[in-house]
């Protein structure tokens, strides 16, 4: 039985060098990709779509890109890029194949390849009850459903991702629980975004309990930290150096992209709010990158329309 548990995954030293870390990552991915539950999951779906398409990036999700050197791995069966072993190339090919199958059967957010939906707006997979139960069982075996305890007692950095509705709260809660059990999380970064709250179905109904002031995902993360860590965030500063969010950021990475001209200026800046313990120690920050999806951002509710502050105070 090639299942996936912490006990069956390859072990690695706590602080190996880069080459050892890369080898460990390949070994871990290989074990996971070739496990019985992964084979079972892929077996549920038609894999005819896994044949290499003419355009090797056509199956990617909206705005996703792959590094150029991967194309040789993808297209040429006997090509081995410099620095990789033939076995590692095989792992990459297998992974790309699984990605294509997943994109064909499990992408419910950009199904038609153009519009982007938030998770709450994703279309339904229309699987039978039996298929649903099987997918849930296999993905649980693959470690994709339930949280696992951290491998180490101490970390230099911890990232807590954002999300919609109650996700920021639940993710911050999980980190706080790990910390309460004695795990040293190091510098904690809570990653928000300039995504404004969704109106259909209304997100503020779910977020009012922990982030009543929030107008975007950055605000949700600040509220989640306050609720779960008992920490107030400092005043918001602009990492990009701008004095406010009123003008388009001159450092915005997506400013040349399609749809950039229609993107509201408030989406284009990088923000930070520092988190300080009662003893004055800085433990981390809440961060928001500028948007990377200029084509799909929705028009924010303006202060004059809703009576609230702009999303980027400072
Ligand atoms: Zn800026």
In short:
The chain is an alpha/beta fold and 314 residues long.
Salient structural properties:
2 domains, binds zinc ion, 5-stranded mixed β-sheet, 32% helix, 314 residues, alpha/beta
Question: Would you write up a description of this structure?
Answer:
With 314 residues, this protein is α/β, with parallel strands linked by helices. The protein has 2 domains: 18-141, no CATH class; 157-306, no CATH class. It has 9 helices and 5 strands. It has helices at 18-33, 36-43, 70-75, 86-106, 129-141, 167-180, 204-207, 217-229, 303-306; strands spanning 157-161, 187-192, 237-238, 271-276, 282-288. It has a 5-stranded mixed β-sheet with strand order 1-2-5-4-3, covered by helices on one side. Helix 6 (167-180) links the parallel strand 1 and strand 2. The structure holds zinc ion (ZN). The site of zinc ion has 6 residues, from loops.
How do the strands line up in the largest sheet?
1-2-5-4-3
Tell me the series of helices and strands, N- to C-terminal. HHHHHEHEHHEEEH
Number of strands: 5
Major sheet characteristics:
5 strands, mixed
Total individual domains: 2
Small-molecule binders here are:
zinc ion
**What would the principal axes of the Cα set say about the shape?**
globular
Q: Report Rg.
A: 22 Å
Helix content: 25-40%
Mean pLDDT: 81
Please mark out the parts with pLDDT under 50 across 5 or more consecutive residues, or reply none: 297-314
The number of helices is: 9
Q: What is the structural class?
A: alpha/beta
N-to-C span: 56 Å
Strand content: 5-15%
